[in-house]
Amino acid sequence: MNCNIIKDLIPLCSEGLCSEESENQIKEHIKDCEKCRLLYEHAPQADSTDIVTETPPQKNIFRKVNKKFKRHKIIDIILLLVIAGIIGVLGWLTYGQIAKSYGCTSFETIFQSLEVRKMGEYIAEGDFETYMDYVTNGHIGDIFTHSKIDEMRANHIKTLEETFEKAYGDTKVTDIDVDSTYNQMYADNSIVICSTLTLTFENGKVFSADFFKDVDGLYRAESMWYVAEDDFNAEEEFSNALNFSSWNEVYPLGVVEALIKNENPTKNMLLNKFHLDCQEAIKNGRDSFLEKGFVVDNFFFSRYRFDEDLEMFYYDVAMDASDSQGTAQLRTRIFYDHMGMMAPEKDQVVIYTNGCTPELEEALSTFFG
pLDDT tens track of the chain, all 369 residues? Predict the structure, then answer.
């Protein structure tokens, strides 16, 4: 074996990495080669104890590697689950956005829930000035009322503040909940998002209202609507005020329908459109008119308008009636607020006659009490 090979083997031999046969060949070679012998003698000799202490045992190395691998594996699994969850939620919301069916949740139902929750917070705080910024003016039916929007808004804010204080001034809201889903409007079968706002008060009272977006992107409210009961309470009055702030109208269709069909009106058809304190007088006037056999030939309610001086809404009303001798026409103005329509004052009722009996004229003049 030549010197070059021996020189390569000596470091391995000194570290104890050579086979026994290679080590014997080195020893045979250095007996005759002075240079290689000196190199062998000055080579650092391996200490078995040092090798053990400086080089970690193979078992410990694999244990650490295995532990690190498991940790990375757990992190990867968690990341995959998070990504899968995000994809699942996005897919679910996308499906809801496309399907727009009842019970579906979508991106827009979430955004509307957040907006309606803000409205609920303003109601809970009694901040109706800000709340009204979210309320639609899209249901103003008469072009002449558009110039009165500021007056109407101030009127609504005042009514909301007064009725809320009366109903919930002695308690505080403890929970605000909003549930938004797609719903179908009966009028035109269009799909809208209905957000149900529920306020829970610390004294156990619960208030609930549905909010829909109008064509102008603002909201209209629907809660109890003109409930005419003997035990009408402050909570129901606030509900009416909330509805009234976005609808601005009492629909008198029950009155017209009852009169044209010449039927005896029930509370649901007629009386619940009027204030509680005038319902009995109106019922008596209406019954008296029918009992005498008079006939309503025509009935007209104008589109609602706003009286700036009185700061109230009203309808112009005309009713044509006849008896066996002639005809007569009633002309009056019926004012209304969030609690319903009010019986007109006597000086607001005008009767025009055309050959009719005095009894018909009298029955018309007392028709609204």
Answer: 678 777 777 777 877 777 778 778 877 788 778 888 877 777 766 554 444 444 455 556 656 666 666 777 788 788 888 888 888 878 877 877 777 777 777 888 899 999 999 999 999 999 999 999 999 875 555 555 566 788 888 999 999 999 999 999 999 999 999 999 888 755 556 788 899 999 999 999 999 999 998 888 899 998 864 444 455 688 888 999 999 998 888 877 666 666 656 555 555 556 678 888 888 888 888 888 888 888 888 888 888 888 888 888 899 999 999 999 999 999 999 999 988 899 998 889 999 999 999 999 999 999 887
Dihedral of alpha carbons 258, 259, 262, 264, sign: positive
**Cα 106–chain centre separation:** 12
- Cα separations (Å) of 84 from 15, 74, 80, 81? 54, 15, 6, 5
Mark residue 226 as left, alpha or beta (left: phi above 0; alpha: psi -120 to 50; beta: remaining).
Answer: left
DSSP 8-state secondary structure symbol assigned to residue 344:
P
What's the CA gap between 204 and 172, in Å, rounded?
A: 10
Question: Of 222, 217, 239, which is closest to residue 112 (Cα–Cα)?
Answer: 217
Q: In this structure, how many other beta carbons lie within 10 angstroms of the beta carbon of residue 61?
A: 11
Residues near 338 by beta carbon (within 8 Å), at least 6 away in sequence: 159, 163, 237, 240, 241, 243, 244, 245
| SS3 state of residue 289 | helix
* Nearest CA-CA partner of 297 in 334, 259, 244, 325: 259
CB 314 within 8 A of CB 334: yes
Give the list of residues 6+ apart from residue 81 with CB closer than 8 angstroms, or none. Answer: none
SS3 303: coil
Structure tokens at 138: 């899209």
Which residues are CB-neighbours of 198 under 8 A, at least 6 positions away?
175, 176, 177, 178, 179, 206, 207, 208
